[in-house]
Design a protein that fits this description.
Layout: H1 18-41, H2 43-49, H3 58-68, H4 79-97, E1 110-116, E2 120-130, E3 133-142, E4 151-155, H5 163-166, H6 173-182, H7 186-191, E5 196-200, H8 224-231, H9 238-253, E6 264-269, H10 271-282, E7 286-292, H11 298-304, H12 317-320, H13 323-328, E8 335-340, H14 351-367, E9 374-379, H15 390-397
Parallel strand pairs: 4-5, 4-6, 6-7, 7-8, 8-9
Antiparallel strand pairs: 1-2, 2-3, 3-5
The structure holds zinc ion.
Zinc ion binds next to loops.
Length: about 400
């Protein structure tokens, strides 16, 4: 602070004699009392404390969505238009998610643990997905496997402990609780049906939690918000990092002797459905997909329900496409969507918000003359993995 520009409540720099310090102290006290008194009499200050009206921006943002969304939505009426649209939207999604900014590296796979379980062997494996970024995952291999078998990538959502719930590891009571609540161990359900199953940790979950949520008692927490805050200013998104990691995992899956030459499917609940959606939309190596609990119009489910996790939000994405458009990118790959009728994430209009998006996706499958490759399992219940039609679907399309 320059000399001659002292605040009225700040003594000049340098040490002062005792008498002067006492004088300054008295002056500060008097000025404080004067301020308090003037605030008590200030009618503007009184008005602020009696504020009765808010001026939010929510409606404006909803209007922005209404009049400025889906510029690259699915509108193709011929196979040629579909090809151009698909190529253009895929390129745009890679750009918006920051996928093309991520850094390839040697995967350097390591098998760190092998455990015999009831009916299958469980391996823990690590691969590098970017320089300095390691993804641990489990591989579940059915007992008595003869040669090779189809593979399933089983992704997790939130409140899962990452791969622990999907791989059915019941060491932690919180993980046990979430497995039972959400029917979360669909990786184990798949290996018991003869598939070789890969259960990865997404960035921010399980063994990949960031320092903000790394305590053992925070096993069900995720670090999506921190990853989003750190990544977005660098042009990176959580969804893009997850999709990239799964593309690298696909490369690895194809090298496994138990899988070589076989089909690879992807299944997942909630945030796991989010991961399956983006992966199947962008990578044609997925032969069959099941998206559970993550399919609805974004205006109702992510704009209106704006407290949703940060991993759902990709800058400029809604200007380009809604969820039905993204799922249309998956055609002609067989796709089953699971929706619980009482799932609060469907938004305030419930199933109407889901059926509208399904109708968009259905147009793509009809245009390609493969309507039988799209199905919708709707059921009474909450936000859970249903699995009733899903495994028949895999058996039909992924064997
Ligand atoms: Zn999240």
């Amino acid at each position: 602070m320059r000399e001659g520009r002292h605040s009225s409540l700040c003594p000049p720099n340098g040490s002062l004699p005792y008498e002067e310090r006492v004088g300054w102290g008295c002056l500060v006290i008097i000025e404080c009392l004067t301020l308090i008194e003037s605030n008590q009499q200030n009618p503007i200050q009184k008005g602020l404390t009696k504020m009765t009206q808010l001026f939010p921006t929510e409606q404006y943002l909803r209007d922005r969505f209404k009049f400025g969304s889906r510029s690259m939505g699915f509108e193709a009426t011929t196979r040629e238009e579909w090809q151009f649209w698909r190529q253009a939207l895929r390129a745009k999604i890679r750009e918006l998610q920051g996928i093309d900014r991520l850094l390839p590296t040697s995967p350097n796979p390591k098998i760190t643990e092998t455990v015999q379980c009831d009916g299958y062997t469980r391996q823990r494996v690590e691969i590098d997905t970017e320089p300095g970024v390691t993804m641990p995952f489990y591989v579940l291999i059915p007992d008595n496997l003869q040669g090779t078998a189809p593979a399933v990538i089983a992704t997790h959502g939130h409140a899962s402990g990452g791969k622990f719930a999907v791989a059915g590891i019941r060491d932690d009571p919180q993980v046990v609780g979430t497995i039972d609540e959400h029917n979360y161990d669909y990786g184990v359900q798949a290996v018991r049906r003869g598939y070789v199953v890969f259960c990865p940790d997404a960035r921010g979950f399980g063994e990949r939690r960031e320092s903000f949520s790394s305590k053992p008692e925070q096993i069900l927490n995720s670090s999506c918000q921190q990853l989003a805050h750190m990544g977005l200013p660098l042009g990176l998104t959580v969804a893009g990092m997850w999709t990239w990691d799964l593309i690298v995992l696909l490369d690895y899956v194809q090298t496994r002797p138990e899988v070589q030459g076989q089909k690879i499917s992807a299944i997942g609940l909630s945030g796991g459905g989010l991961q399956v959606m983006w992966l199947a939309a962008l990578d044609e190596r997925i032969a069959c997909a099941v998206i559970s609990g993550y399919f609805y119009g974004v205006a109702d489910s992510l704009l209106h329900l704006s407290n949703n996790c940060a991993c759902n939000y990709i800058p400029h994405m809604w200007e380009m496409a809604d969820m039905g458009d993204v799922a249309a990118l998956i055609a002609p790959c067989p796709l089953l969507i699971e929706t619980a009728r009482q799932d609060g994430l469907n938004g305030p209009r419930g199933m109407d918000n889901v059926f509208e998006q399904y109708a968009i996706t259905e147009k793509a499958y009809k245009l390609l003359d493969v309507p039988e490759r799209l199905a919708h399992d709707t059921f009474d219940g909450g936000h859970v993995w249903h699995g009733t039609i899903a495994f028949d679907w895999l058996e039909h399309w992924a064997r």
